[in-house]
Amino acid sequence: MDKTKIYGKTKKQHFCLVAEDDLSGVWDLPINEYQEISFIDNCNHKLEGNEIFFIKTDDDDIEPYLEHINQTSHCNNANNQDILELETLYIFKKENQKIHLYIQRITPSKILSKNLISANNLKIERNKNRLIIANITNVYWNQEQQKVYFTNFVDLENVFPKFSKYYREANTEDLNKFQSGEYTFLDIKFDMNTTLKQKTRLRKIAQIVDMLDEVKENLNEYLDYSKKYEIDILNNGQFTIKNTQDIDTLHHIVFGAFYTSEVGDKEQRIATAFRQTNLKNKNAK
Questions:
Q1: Inter-residue contact 26 to 135 (CB < 8 Å)
Q2: What is the pLDDT of residues 40-88, one digit of tens each?
Q3: What is the DSSP string of 106-131?
Q4: Mean pLDDT calculated for residue range 181-190
Q5: pLDDT, mean over the chain
Q6: Burial class for 35, CB neighbours closer than 10 Å (0-12, 13-18, 19+)
Q7: C-beta of residue 25 within 8 angstroms of C-beta of residue 1
Q8: Which residues, in sequence order, are CB contacts of 252 under 8 Å at separation 6+?
Q9: Cα(271)–Cα(260) distance, rounded to whole angstroms?
Q10: For the whole model, what pTM was predicted?
């Protein structure tokens, strides 16, 4: 049985060794033969089943992963808190001294904290954390070709935020879809077509629109997540968007950016910005 080391990166930029095991039937790494589509030249292209996007890169684009790949001996084993805060799992292999990096995003719905009854000792195991591993590679980097591959740009940007400059801005079709009423968990209080002009927020709207079906499918998880952090745009099971700042908040919800620090006053923070928010954590003790 061939064992593979699985590493992880947490919201706090901590890299750790998560597991070492046989991945057969769990996470099959080989990338299938795809027709490559340049994302920069075809960012509005709808992928077919045999197609994949790529962006040309250099080694600097893959930091800080590359640094830790070159220093794996410095990676400590993951502890219980690391598992709760994981953003990605990743595996790398070397061929002809060139790195192949396979990354899987970890969303909040993949981390389960439950009370379980163990069949081994017939006792209740309290607050046991479980991590769901999917048989999918969200982002793949080939050092020899100097290309990063993906099918969903949202995955790429969450793993490597510096690529956000390549994302499309929301067009009229995106804005109409966002405020059409098709997604009943959204309550839009202003006309985005006439108000929304800033490029950064237009990119955020495009990203949110690309995730709307996933949010709809897993709505209860997003609602529970919002309740946990007492998000003020959540009202009676709907996200009320009154202004452009609310778009930022919705973006943080959709991409799981809120988390709670584990030291000091247990502040609630936004992982993407690494700054304290003005939210109050009533659950902190």
A1: yes
A2: 888 778 888 889 999 999 999 999 999 999 888 778 999 888 888 899 9
A3: --GGGEEEEEEE-TTT--EEEEEEEE
A4: 93
A5: 84
A6: exposed
A7: no
A8: 258, 270, 272
A9: 9
A10: 0.64
